[in-house]
Amino acid sequence: MDYVITGDGSNTLFNQQIGEHYHSKHGALQEAKHVFLKSGLEFYLERNPNKEVSILEIGFGTGLNFILAADYCTMNAVKLSYCGIEAFPLDSAVIQNIGYNSFVSELLWQHFNESYSKALLNLVTVNSLIDLQIAHQKVLTFETDHQYDIIYFDAFAAVHQPEMWTDETLAHVTKFLKTGGVFVTYAITGNLKRSMKALGFAIEKAPGAPGKREMLRAIKL
Ligand SMILES: C[S@@+](CC[C@H](N)C(=O)[O-])C[C@H]1O[C@@H](n2cnc3c(N)ncnc32)[C@H](O)[C@@H]1O
Q1: Assigned domain for 21 exists
Q2: What are the phi and psi torsion angles at 60 (to 5°)?
Q3: Which residue owns the Cα nearest ligand 1 atom 27?
Q4: Domain limits at 105?
Q5: pLDDT tens column, 198-219
Q6: Is 3 in contact with 98 (CB distance < 8 Å)?
Q7: Of 15, 22, 203, 221, whose CB is crowded by the most CB atoms within 10 A?
Q8: What is the whole-number distance in angstroms between the Cα of residue 139 and the centre of ligand 1?
Q9: Structural domains of the chain, count
Q10: Does a structural domain hold residue 211?
Q11: Residue 158, ligand 1, Cβ within 6 A
């Protein structure tokens, strides 16, 4: 798979089958930081100043959202339990060479690379604060008893993969979110807002990442 340089200089990938990039062409790093780290994790921790948090990500991909969350939690002494669902895991060499090493501490980058392949099979301890599991399966077959604090919904866009944005898929993933939990995604559409309201969420239009006016944040009531 070929690397593509985005607007902020960070790399992304292009998925030929789907016909879509893994991140915003305006900037992979700035999108990950804005939508998921700042509007998701930091937003949640400001309102719930816990020293423990759990995240479920739909579409683990390159692990960019994971490493940013793990670096933030490691620096702020917050325990993070992270589960990424990924139907088509990338080869570890593709991740190692994508150039995301400079976005996080050297030690975390090293621990992530050592953990990635193992996390596809089992829950792994990345460091004393961070646990990672990558569920190698399609989202609709994923089941867990865990109730997460935050959902990072990072599916390919609805025009390319509409089945990821249906009421069925949204109902399936949001049942793994706690009451008061935060759901974030980079997109916002009328259909998505209606679906999330019907699923019992308070909807918020938050400012979008560069290149997008708005994004959706939703709190489970
Ligand atoms: C927009 S990309 C995710 C980018 C990722 N969060 C990152 O930082 O690199 C969407 C991801 O969803 C995965 N995917 C596609 N269909 C899926 C399905 N049915 N279940 C789970 N994951 C799926 C793709 O393989 C891809 O990695």
Answers
A1: no
A2: -70, -35
A3: 61
A4: 27-220
A5: 999 999 999 999 889 999 999 9
A6: yes
A7: 22
A8: 9
A9: 1
A10: yes
A11: no
